[in-house]
User: What shape does this take?
Amino acid sequence: MGKNIIEIQEKLIETACKGNQQSMYRLYKLYVQTMYNTCIRMVSNHYDAEDIIQESFIKAFNNLENFRGDSSFGLWLKRIVINNSITFLRKKKYLFSDIDDMQIVSDDDTNEDFPNIDPAIVHKTIKTLPEKARVVLNLYLLEGYKHKEISNMLGISESTSKSQYQRAKHLLKEKLCKHISTL
Amino acid sequence: MNFNEYISKNRHKLDVETPNEDYLWTGIVQSIINKKKTNRFMVFKIAASIVIVLALSVISYQLISIRNNQQLILANIDPKLAKQEIQLQKQIKTYYKVLQSTNYNKYLLTNSFNDLEYIDTLINQYSIDLKRNGPNPKLINSLMDLYYKKIRLLDRMLNEIEKEKNYENSETNI
Assistant: This one.
């Protein structure tokens, strides 16, 4: 992110912190699409994602004074969105801990050539993955969390996180290959 | 290009869905405005509660301190006077009971409460003087006089309350 953009953002955060709605709106416009896509890949439902996004922005704006600038505003906001998504899934009685018996599948794609598919199709296919595997895949592959962090966030073991990720990746590749073969 | 490379290369292109931004923003902004209103109202409510609690505490303190001062002073001096003192104190006690049972306006009676306090201070002072210097007819008369004054003052306070009540009723009738 350019220095100018960072400075503008800092000013926006500062004024939003004082209750300036215009600044809040500009911050919202900057991040809403990214946050929405992250969220919908986690919860896989358009209505739930909208609720979570609203809740997350409200939470962020009401707690702006707690934003210390250790990370970028986007990362801070994304953490809120992800935490809210996980809380939502937990409320749905989605238990992360019952997947400990998964076998770790070895990562076998290091040399495999992957076709250049339209990213929109990949996004759409991720949403069709089984919930538990999908969440881990999103957190690890797309949001850059480590398995240790994921295990803490979801209350599962590190090995479960790894095995779920391998499973999700395997399923995703399988589905994408099927899609290509139908073209 | 393997799968991981594909994802890292196309990560930002995966954010393809466009939310209904205006709809989402309306909800967000409404919630923020409502929270601000609620916060202001909460502050007002807390402030009002503190004022009420303080006012009640002051009134209770005044009533308790006035009551506590009503100890028999003349019992060791003259049985007849002591009997009279008991009767006067009973009367004062009754007045206080009636006063407490009315929903009186404390601002209306501020001066009267100050006067009552002043009378009690004098009664205390006379009591100390009597204990210290022995029975002094002038002092005893003054003490009895203070009791009567206190009764008259309490009576006047009740009248004030009654008058205020009647005035409010007549205003409501209009």
About this structure: Chain B has a mean pLDDT of 83. The two ends of chain B are 91 Å apart (CA to CA).
